[in-house]
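We were asked to recover a plausible sequence for a given structure. The inputs and outputs are reproduced exactly as logged, with field labels preserved.

PROBLEM: sequence recovery
POSITIONS: 117
GIVEN STRUCTURE:
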């Protein structure tokens, strides 16, 4: 069964990606987790995402489309990446998500994929 592991980050966590004092630890932890997921043969897809200030939002209203700068939701935590894993059940997905590196300002959401009929 496929599960999406969505990584949400605060401004502080996004800043750590490029801060010379923190970026090595930030990326090494992510790489180690991805290596383990790949080695286990459960990675089905995913990607990291650029910082929220690079986002564009396409809105539909009244049959018209408009484009604006910024994210859909103005919240403290913003999506920083997502990974799709193929595991037996939610408990397995939770175990893998718990192995993701701990960082200040990072939250992880786990959702089952929709199974088409």
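RECOVERED SEQUENCE:
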């Amino acid at each position: 069964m496929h599960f999406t592991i969505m990584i949400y980050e605060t401004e502080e966590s996004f800043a750590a990606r490029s801060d010379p004092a923190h970026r090595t630890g930030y990326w090494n932890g992510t790489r180690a987790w991805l290596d383990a997921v790949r080695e286990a043969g459960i990675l089905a897809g995913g990607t990291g995402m650029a910082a929220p200030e690079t986002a564009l939002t396409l809105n539909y209203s009244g049959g018209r489309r408009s484009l604006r700068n910024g994210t859909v939701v103005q919240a403290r935590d913003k999506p920083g990446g997502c990974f799709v894993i193929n595991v037996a059940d939610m408990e397995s997905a939770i175990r893998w998500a718990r192995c993701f590196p701990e960082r200040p300002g990072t939250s992880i959401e786990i959702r089952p994929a929709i199974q088409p009929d």
